[in-house]
Amino acid sequence: MQSLICNKYIVLINTLYTLLVVCMGFSTVVEKFCGRSYVSEVIYGSWWFAALWGLTAAASMLYLVRKKVFRRFSVMLLHTSFVVILTGALTTRLTSSEGTLHLRKGEAASSFTDNSGAACPLPFAVILKDFEIVRYPGTDAVMDYKAHIVVDGTEEAMCISMNNIGKVSGYRFYQSSYDADARGTVLLVASDPYGIAVTYTGYLLLLAGLILTMFSKHSRLRRLLRIAMRPALPVLVMFLSCGQARGGETVDKEIADEMAGIAVLYNGRICPLNTAATDFVTKLCGKSRWQGLSANEIFLSWTIFYTGWEDKRIIKVKDKEVQKLLGIEGRWACVRDFYTSQNEYKLKDMVSDVSLSESARKAIREADEKVQVITMFYNSELLRIFPLSNHAAIEWHKPGSTALPKDVGEAEFQFINHAMDHLVMSILSHDVKKAKDIIAKIRLYQKEKAGDILPSRAAMQAEMLYNRLQSAVWPVVASLLSSLLFCVMFFSARPMSRTGVCHTVFNLSLTVYITVLAGLRWWISGHVPMSNGFETMLFMSWISMLLTLLLTSPFPVIKAFGPVVSSFCLLVAVLASGSPQVTQLMPVLQSPLLAVHVFFVMMSYSIIAVMTLIAVRCLSLRRFTSEAERMTALSQLLLYPAVAFLAVGIFTGAVWANVSWGSYWSWDPKETWALITLMVYAVPLHQSSLWQSRKPQSYHWFVLLSFLSVLMTYFGVNHFLSGMHSYA
């Protein structure tokens, strides 16, 4: 009878759990077409959605009590933490309020506007005493903005800036935006007197439960560890390709490389011209080299011999419909292909043409962006190389600029307007020495005018080295092919000792390569490289190799699978991101919680990727051998830290969101799919309740199919859905 009741509970819990996962996944798709406000009201804010969570939690706790799981403190604590977190979410929903507060300098306000547009009174008045915009040194890019407010009854001003919350009588104020004249600010206002405390308590209980479960003597982990660490027995195959030539009038390579080292204001930061050149060429043709010419040579050659370069088929157009619109055959176009014989732009007004499909508009937009980059190039927007002091700030001007300050001296005016002319003349006359002298004078001028904010010579060289490394695809392809080859050799019937040594050397070399790449990016950007898609994939690649080196001894199979995961991540980072620009980090992304959040999520994804490869390997075996038993145990062992790291990553992300935006959960598609992934991978942890997952074949199929949720979370949301995590 007891067993029958428990089975009914399991069926009920499984049904409710599956409904939650399907409902959340479906909601993210609905949001794409109907908008955030619609799904917030109809689904996430509905009574039935809250009831579905409540029923799932209640049924789960009743089942745990009937099974007397409370005797296992760590497991009970872990599951109780989720109930506390859900209770906190419900409390926030019932007792919190939020909205916006618009303040003008010197004016007082005693109410804010909630999300429905209604005015909500504050128990105090707020006055904006002062407002300031902080910019990155030597640029117009906004680094931070600060509102200095005074609350009635106090004399001391409170500073509210990005990641610096103002707290008054249970109300929290977050910096949101500011008025165009910099005399007003918009603050987010949030009041959640009870929900945050309950939710954060749940997070702490969850962390404690995870730690106790991982190190409990009665955990399945110890048995799985013994099986996975049995002496390993010593299967796959792959392929290769590449090449190209020169073309057009080009400048001397020596001069181009010398020019590439001068500083330029590009993309809101000061960097070597090589960075702008690399991005320019990569944007046009998808790689940093074309017909044997480097980005430096193409950029400077096009600057001088622009008429000839407009006939070069350097622009890559992938979409066949766009090729037809341009009247070209194949995927390579030149600048002139985008214009009619009457010099009219062929793609004019097509980007916003609603009669076209979304995919067609996207393809046209991609082609149009390349033409806009060339337009920026012709306007010398990529060549802001002359710094001039303008009161407290330093402004960077392009050659021949007509917007120079009126107090600029005649000699300086002539230098800014004609230095590039002299450089062009020396190049045309093939006078390499004179060209180098002019470049040296430009560099000296920059040092005199902006020496305090210029990157050091070492930093500039480091960035140029980074540009070379990150734009080179062949090391990534080579590492992927090599890792697959070593994977085959690892599982071959008669592995050779020399192969083992070569495999170890390869793993160390790949780790060093990725470490140098990530380290250079960290140095150049000034922040931990975890802020966008390219950086997180690079970090995941590095984490995979770190795990490989640390776990090779106890789990030799990791030595085979780790580099494969790492190489795939590296390939995705380099190819999918195109030309990943190193930009100033958004103020909201400067929080240290971001690094913690991304670290744990990427650790989880790296482990899950290894588990997926193990699943592929085990499913490829015709019968369940001792090797398969060890690998199954290893996969099940890795499942625990994978789920734990993802859980920690999600709740640290929630804390970061609460600190930055005033809301720890907003049902953004990225958040929702991360939660779905956590819930999906938590299923096989309950083998005692789910007999199906005890079978090795069923378990591996589940792991393999579950990887689709990771792909959806990381790639699908970015490319097919909408949301706030565009940088992720």
Please describe what this structure looks like.
The chain is built from 23 helices and 14 strands. The chain has helices at residues 2-34, 36-44, 47-66, 73-95, 195-215, 220-228, 253-259, 273-285, 295-304, 306-309, 320-326, 358-378, 410-428, 432-450, 457-471, 474-490, 497-525, 533-551, 557-576, 592-620, 626-661, 669-682, 696-720, and strands at residues 97-104, 108-114, 119-135, 142-151, 158-160, 166-168, 171-178, 184-191, 263-266, 269-272, 315-316, 332-333, 386-390, 393-397. It has an eight-stranded antiparallel beta sheet with strand order 5-4-3-2-1-8-7-6, with helices on one face. Strands 9-10 form a two-stranded antiparallel ribbon. A two-stranded antiparallel sheet has the order 11-12. Strand 1 (97-104) and strand 2 form a beta hairpin. The longest helix has 36 residues, at 626-661. It is globular and about 90 Å long. It starts with a helix and ends in an 8-residue tail after the last helix. Residues 231-248 have low confidence and may be disordered.
